[in-house]
Amino acid sequence: MSNPLLSSFTGPFNTAPFPEISTAHFQPAFLAAIEEAKKEIEAIKTVSLPSFENTVEALEKSGKHLGILSALFFNLNSAETNDELQGLARVISPLLTAHANDVLLDQELFQRIAQVYEQKESLSFTAEQSTLLEKTYKSFVRNGAQLGEADAETLREIDQELAQLNLQFGEHVLAETNRFLHLVNQKSELEGLPQGALEAAAQLAEEKGHAGNWAFSLDYPSYIPVMTYAKNRDLRKTLFMAFNTKCAKGDELDNQDIIKQLVSLRHRRAKLLGYESHSHFTLEERMAKSPGTVFEFLNSLLEKAKPKAKLDVQEVAELAKKLDQLEVLEKWDFAYYSELLKKEKYAFDEEELRPYFSLENVISGVFATASRLFGLRFVPNSEIPVYHPEVTAYEVYDRENQFLSVFYADFFPRPGKRNGAWMTSYRGQYKESGTDHRPHISIVCNFTKPTKSSPSLLTFNEVTTLFHEFGHALHGMLARGVYESLSGTSVFWDFVELPSQIFENWCYEKECLDLFARHYQTGEPIPAALVEKIKKAANFQQGYMTLRQLSFALLDMAYHSQDSSQIEDIKTFEKEVLKATELLPSIETTRISTSFSHIFQGGYASGYYSYKWAEVLDADAFELFQEKGVFDSHTAISFEKNILSAGGTEHPSLLYARFRGREPKPDALLKRSGLVVGN
Fold first, then answer.
1. Residue range 374-392, pLDDT digits in tens
2. How many angstroms separate the CA atoms of 459 and 206, rounded?
């Protein structure tokens, strides 16, 4: 049987032929693609007089097939993995790391790039060409091109170790999540759980061979309802402890030593390259620029949020004492009593909303919102191959009815998929020889599954999550750049959350909700009174929620802004870092770090602060939409042109100022979050 990965894909829009691909196809395809990329690099080095076109642009265009293969493989390893694929990842990852090092440590290639870079003042460039030249030169310098031979070899060794440890961390988290199952055989123990959660638990038990029971996993759609609604305190504690001790039990899936190795190696790497810490290295290429700026930003928010957070916790604790004579509010109690407090204060029950948010309707709504703002049209296409039967593929068209993108949507939990929600791409966008190569974009989520009696009915939080990931998807789909490495979401990490977080704002606007929020049984639109409750409850517990986000960001920065190689105990380290944000009793056996995949598996090391950073941008940007009208076409076109389509072609500060007419101000975020006096 021929290997479909060894040639160009022939499916609609050159989509990947998923059903034809087996795990055995990947390794030979990767080896061939690496050899092809090496030949392209060698060809660049044979040109007698380096120029922007024959060196910098040629390097940008090299390795396209390798890039497509890598995206395909690692996306599958996140969304539809198995033991065989994970084993192969441990083989493929070192090959790719070695190849990247071969390129970035190639002295002859670097000298040619440096030659072009030194002439930049005398050459005429577009803004995008200037950005590409700057980024290319810096990527070599920042990845060891100026190191001596011995140090370069050390760098290679560090990068190989880091690649393997990243994979291992993620494998452990997925395995720990998958192996947990808690069974309940008495319905009386499940008091408070909504009917949909009960049905889902019964369905999960049946799927796992325990019909007649109720089963709970650590997947969010199973875990969150228990923490929010279960009156049974022991059940809440059981799931909380399982969730928050993931990979911290001293067994074969323990991640504590892996964390120590990761932070130590990252620090060694940064020092080798001449930086004070991993954070100093990372933040050089961020809007924030330095750890000092990040700490100043986080501590400023901490100062504003902590007094309100203390009041938030006090309010919940008082209610718990009043209702159940609870003397000590524990972490597994907070969400439950917080939900009761929300009902008391706003007559608001999250479960009231579910019937208006069937997944099918919310998908229609997110498409309708994109259509109103940016003129997009989504057409399902069953001829486009997918990697799992639950995945739906769409063709996307722009306001001129030109093909824009392929879009894959994958919504439900399963054993081969890691937890959480994310956007990714299978192909980037770029222009070459007069052709605009359009992207293949995907969003992957873990939402509430349909039951025997009802469709998938989302919580409001799941609705905002879908809008969030779709905002990222728009950033990818609307890309109009020349160079793939500057296209779509290839922007500074503390800017990449702006498109996603701003898109969440439409979920709170009645004009948007009226497009799709209809009762799944009666078709009745969501009542205005319920929309008003959503708005009024939007600031509920914002002090506490802000403090929670700050705790993650501060922990990330603590690991990476100093030499953390001497950490002896992860829990002790966490406890010291988090004491400024800890308002509930600490629990000795729990760990945040051991399943903190954002920073130890994903790309958020020294970057978790970017969620709060981007909140400043999104609140400030959405304020303009509110002033002009949330579907104002002029504002939407400006946002599309200056933010979504521009990608990383210019510095984000320039792009943002071009859209907003000025630099961002924090006022809108503080007002929206209720963290300023009088709000």
1. 999 999 999 999 999 999 9
2. 24
What distances in angstroms separate CA 677 from CA 307, 308, 613, 673, one per listed residue? 12, 11, 21, 11
Structure tokens at 290: 């330095």
Kindly list the distances between the CA atom of residue 428 and the CA atoms of 17, 21, 57, 438, 578, in Å, as whole numbers in the listed order.
Answer: 17, 21, 16, 7, 39
Confidence (pLDDT) at 383: 97
Please, which pLDDT band fits residue 679 given cuts at 50, 70 and 90?
Answer: very low
Please choose, from the candidates 61, 62, 38, 52, the residue with its C-alpha nearest in 3D space to the C-alpha of residue 112: 52
DSSP characters over 205-273: HHHTT-TTSEEE-SSHHHHHHHHHH---HHHHHHHHHHHHTTT-SSSTT--HHHHHHHHHHHHHHHHHT
At residue 678, does pLDDT exceed 80? no
Residues 63, 33: Cα–Cα separation, whole Å: 7
pLDDT tens digits, 497-533: 999 999 999 999 999 999 999 999 999 999 999 999 9
Taking alpha carbons only, the member of 577, 421, 427 closest to residue 504 is 421
Whether 121 contacts 53, CB under 8 Å:
no
Region 227-241 average pLDDT: 98
C-alpha to C-alpha distance for 214 and 206, rounded to whole angstroms:
8
Which single residue is written with the structure tokens 């031979």?
149
469 is catalytic: yes
Q: Which two tokens stand for residue 178?
A: 């998958």
What rounded mean pLDDT belongs to the chain? 96
Q: Return left, alpha or beta for 292; rule: phi > 0 is left, psi -120 to 50 is alpha, else beta.
A: alpha
CA distances from 314 to 258, 573, 578 (A): 37, 27, 19
**Domains of the chain from N-terminus onward:** 4-104+106-146 (1.20.1050.40), 180-241 (no CATH), 246-347+539-679 (1.10.1370.10), 355-538 (1.10.1370.40)
Torsion of CA 136, 140, 142, 145, to 10 degrees: -160
Going by C-beta distance under 8 Å and a sequence separation of 6 or more, which residues neighbour residue 599?
556, 559, 560, 605, 607, 608
Copy the structure tokens of residue 404: 């824009």
CB 353 within 8 A of CB 459: yes
State mean pLDDT over 77-81: 97
Concatenated DSSP letters for 25-52?
GHHHHHHHHHHHHHHHHHHHHH-SS--I
Beta-carbon-side half-sphere exposure of residue 412 (alpha carbons within 13 Å):
16
Name which of 86, 70, 71, 78 is nearest 33 in CA terms. 70
Cα-Cα-Cα-Cα dihedral sign, residues 596, 598, 599, 600: positive
What pTM did the predictor assign? 0.95
Tell me the angle at which helices 26-46 and 64-79 cross, rounded to the nearest 10 degrees.
150
Provide the pLDDT for residue 675.
81
With a pLDDT cut of 90, the percent of the chain lying above it is: 95
- Catalytic position from the list 469, 497, 574, 640: 469
Complete edge-to-edge strand list for the sheet that includes strand 392-397: 377-380, 392-397, 403-410, 440-444, 422-427
How far apart CA 366 and CA 39 sit, in angstroms, is 44
Please name the helix (run of DSSP H) or strand (run of DSSP E) that holds residue 523, with its range, or none: none
Count of Cβ atoms closer than 10 Å to residue 307 Cβ:
11
